[in-house]
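User: Some background: our group keeps a shared notebook of sequences we're curious about, and every so often someone picks one and asks for a predicted structure to add to the entry. Today it's my turn. The entry only has the sequence so far, pasted here. Could you supply the structure so I can complete it?
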Amino acid sequence: MTREKRDPRREELLREMIGMYHPQSVEDIQNMLKDMFADTMENMLKAELDTELGYKKNDQREKLTTNRRNGSYSKTVQSHLGESEIQIPRDREGSYEPKLVPNGTKDVSALEEKILSLYAKGTSDRDISDVINEIYGFELSHETISNIVDRVQPRVIEWQNRRLDKVYPFVYMDALMISLKSVSDGHTDKKAGKYAVYSMIGINCDGKKDCFGFWIGANEGTHQWLSIFDELKARGVERLGFVCIDGLSGLEEAITNTFSEAIVCRCMVHLVRNSTKYIPTKRRKEFCADLKAIYGAISAGEAESALSQLNEKWQKQYPSAVKVWNDNFCYVQRLFEYPAEIRKMIYTTNTIESFNSALRKVTDRKGAFPNEAAILKILYLRTLDIAAKWTKPYPNWSVVRGKLDILFGDGWDR
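Assistant: Of course. Here's the predicted structure to add to the notebook entry:
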């Protein structure tokens, strides 16, 4: 993975800190960071008091207030780095109440979480600084915000490699395009440009969604897909039920080779898109109505009849459009092998397309990302934000679950 170029000023600061602390272990580095955190907090608190009093320390000009600084007192606070002792400045009249560390508050990690939450929504560094300034009364530099976001990286790695459930009755896979300045697939670095970021969402046996992770710059080939599905197995997945995809090259073969019991389904909406690109705009509405008669049929026989009518009406003028449905009709027929409640869940990948749309709202604002780590951080943070709402099971899940029990038999979920 190509490393992001560091700010020379940050490099110089790091050299100074290493020269001062001479860290020899991870614990030494942790202690160094805790000291830096404490110093930063104290400087922010001093800036707060400057604002409260209306003048800076050692300002010799005439003051508009009789209130003055009155030393400081010690307070132990808790952050993601552990406990740190900081000095809280005081004023003579006792009217100053710290906003950064309110009286009675010892846990200040909420500030970091607020910054990460704003970042996850695609908020720019400047806007984050403005929001923090409005809430807490002080500004944050671009470097400070970057440092806070960078500390998420270990959590990203842990999340991307976490254990998954043994069984997922439904899985959806799709991709979104991201602009990256550099991409590494573990073997070679690739040129800057747009790359696919593949994501997977599973619906577990309780009917709740779970994002498995993200894979960047994957080649659309069986070998690459096998690697991804082998990774899922290593993370504890033993069985996949229905896997809904967009017909990416080599994907179906990789799924069935790794999870032999999986039933691969094609997204009907993608087939519609793939075929309508061959149809003139003025005739697409008419063409789509004929397509709906195929995938919206109530039986396989009715769908087959609708396909025959499609061929008869459109084949001569738009053979490429009709070919899409002739080549993929086996997936339409597969839909009718299952009850309507299950059919409703497998005829489209809308579950993951809506998820990717929510991701895209954030990634599009950021422009080109410097490297893989940067995009994984924003996708991880945005996913946490979205997944916070995934508390309820899929609508009508008890009925769907009953159909799955009949279809797969007793013990399918164990």
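Suggested note for the entry: The chain is about 50% helix and 15% strand. Residues 108-151 form one domain.
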